[in-house]
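Tutorial handout. Part one gives the primary structure; part two gives the three-dimensional structure as tokens.
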Amino acid sequence: MNPQRLALFSAIVHAGSISKAAAALGMGKSVLSRQLAKLEDELGTRLIQRSTRRLTLTEIGELVFAEARHIDQAVANIEQLTEQHQSEVKGRLRVTCPRPLGQRYLVPLLVEFTTTYPKVEVALSVDDRMVDLIAEHIDVALRVAHLEDSTLVARKLCDNPRVLVASPAYLARRGTPQLPTDLLGHDCLLYSTGARVFDEWSFSKDGVHTPVRAPGKIHINDGMALVAAAVAGGGAMVIDRLLVGHELADGSLVQLLPDFQLRPGQPVYAVYPARPWLAFKTATFVAFLQERLFA
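Part two.
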């Protein structure tokens, strides 16, 4: 039996409804409902009678809740024991994020965070794989993705539109494209996974879509290497804006065709395990990211 689902069941009973419990936990209602259904499947019995007006425990649900309350009591005891600890931001914080995001943004912010909260120790794992937060004891993960429903809590930090950019030196040499089809006569820098080259760029304006098969001799499987190639004058490229925010700000790259929309990029989320309570250090760090990341 999954102890996390048991804790979620207890939270539902305490809140009086799945909707209220989901709001308190920061989870989607449908996600919490599925976790309850999975717990009932595990136990082979219905725990709660659903109705539009009220939540009613079944007979076995009452018995299970009586035992599940021990989990709540343990949490309360832990909170009481750590009340002084929780009155200030301190302790070890384990964080993971994709490599480009860590290099461009998170590392400088970690310095700022630990300067502001000197009693915090941060262990950052820069990793492009989808880390199992519970198995690897991670407090917070930053993810650039359209997230699927899960038992994890996700806080959106920012959108991440895609942009077409090139360096001023390249544009001085080759000219500035005025239309998406002008790119057919330009050098383009392309992201590649080895097995696939992402050369299909789609532009839209006023409801009209213009697909372009971008020509390019340089294919790279790393976002930051693509940025370096663009700054060096290697050509035009489509990339997530978060990877070129600094270069657009300092003028080493210029956005092209700003009146055209590209396919949306993947937003940035802070993700952490769903629990009846959230460690003060974790809550403070997520709030810090929401305020400072890409501000």
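Part three, for discussion. DSSP finds ten helices and 16 strands in the chain. The chain has a mean pLDDT of 85.
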